[in-house]
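Hi Y.,

Following your request, here is the sequence exactly as I used it, all 157 residues.
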Amino acid sequence: EELSAWEAALEGAGCVLVPWEQPWSVDGVTFLGLEYDKSSAEHVVLVDSGLRVAKGAAISALVALDASGYFYWEGSAGRRQRTRPRWKDTNCVTCRREVGGKRVVWECYHVPSRGQAPAAAKAGIDSRRAAAAVESEAKWASRKKCAMQVATFSLQA
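Below is the corresponding structure, written out as tokens. Let me know if you'd prefer a different format.
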């Protein structure tokens, strides 16, 4: 009932509702997140695979990130574009295009390499995330200590 009320409110406001399922997990495949771009081109072409994505369509493809973390695609007039996902483990994307607009949505995934055990791929990502969390926590603790020292020094002066 609440969902129907939300849909009615959004449609009344002129929003276009596009049915979309939340990405689901397959053994070893990890959904990392979404990135957004814009392109007015009728077709977007993924450089790594040569796959063309028309407006209103979606397609999944393996991608290779370069040393700076970008993957490449072509937009209007064959102009080369690039996107840098926030997740360096991205090796597969699903490109979704709006029917009438310019929005390009990139669903970023990590899929196990051929011959790699799915559990090992997921464990590797999880361990890197845990290490990053520990490093971040240590940085915040150090910053907090410095801030407390500065505050204490200021109060003594």
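Strands lie at 30-38, 43-46, 52-54, 58-62, 71-74, 80-83, 92-97, 103-110.

Thanks again,
Q.
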